[in-house]
Amino acid sequence: PLVYEAIGLKKDYDGGQVQALRGVSFQVKAGEFVAITGPSGCGKSTLLQMLGALDRPAAGTLNYRGQSLPDAADPAAYRAHEIGFIFQAFHLLPTYTAVENVQIPMFEGKLSLKERRDRGVELLQQVGLGHRVHHFPGKLSGGERQRVAIARSLANRPSVLLADEPTGNLDSHNAAQVLDLLVKLHEEQKMTLVMVTHDLGIARLATRTILMKDGQVVSDGALPPVTPAQ
Ligand code: ADP
Ligand code: ADP
């Protein structure tokens, strides 16, 4: 089944001076790991914000499981229950411990205090941070902070993860750990994963890569092989 279907998405900024998206079309099927790549300014983040219902297209069709996302009755409910968002900057609350940060999305729900706490610990164990439950973000490495953010993104059992340059602030060792975790969530839990990255090496981990340039899709499928230097 199709998770996303985008047809002819357009988005301008600054009264039309910047054409961030100029007719973008693609599909994402359930369980796919899709990378969106391309040079800085090509419209990757703008597109991801639309998939996350944080912004709406000026023109075009964007469906989530067959229903128009821009016309959704309750975009906040979509963001809270259908998707998990992972950002380059981890956006953890510094005065909350790891397990408290993970519980933030569950505050609105029906879980008891104990159920919330147990689920928070379980999610931290799942991302390999069972030994960091009561640490504050300031005491964690960058990779550990991003793994806390990933645990938080899973709190309400989303069916889709949207990640915007999730390793952009990490050194290569921590980046590899975070990427391993995302690949594991995709492979073992069948999460649908859409990841924006300008790093072609990371894009190659995906099952499919959408390459953008100047607000348009220039290829969709496998990335062209690296040409050996002459
Ligand atoms: P990418 O994520 O690929 O770097 P973006 O989607 O962030 O690209 O940006 C696409 C284009 O739209 C760029 O030219 C960028 O400067 C512009 N842009 C993005 N957001 C805004 C905004 N809020 N206001 C004005 N221009 C923006
Ligand atoms: P990324 O690193 O993901 O490409 P950017 O640094 O391009 O993100 O953008 C970060 C935020 O700033 C986004 O919310 C984007 O919409 C906004 N933004 C990007 N370019 C511009 C711009 N030219 N004017 C105003 N806001 C912008």
TrEMBL record:
Cross-referenced PANTHER family: ABC TRANSPORTER ABCH.1 (PTHR24220:SF86), IMPORT ATP-BINDING PROTEIN (PTHR24220)
Q: What is this protein called?
A: Putative ABC transport system ATP-binding protein
- Report the superkingdom from the record: Bacteria
Please name the taxonomic classification of the source: Bacteria, Pseudomonadati, Verrucomicrobiota, Verrucomicrobiia, Verrucomicrobiales
Which residue intervals define the domain ABC transporter in the entry? 4-230
Q: Which organism is it from?
A: Prosthecobacter dejongeii
Record flagged with keyword Nucleotide-binding: yes
Instruction: List UniProt keywords, sorted A-Z.
Output: ATP-binding, Nucleotide-binding, Transport
Please give one Gene Ontology molecular function term for this protein: transmembrane transporter activity
- Output the InterPro entries linked to this UniProt entry: AAA+_ATPase, ABC_transporter-like_ATP-bd, ABC_transporter-like_CS, ABC_transpr_LolD-like, MacB-like_ATP-bd, P-loop_NTPase
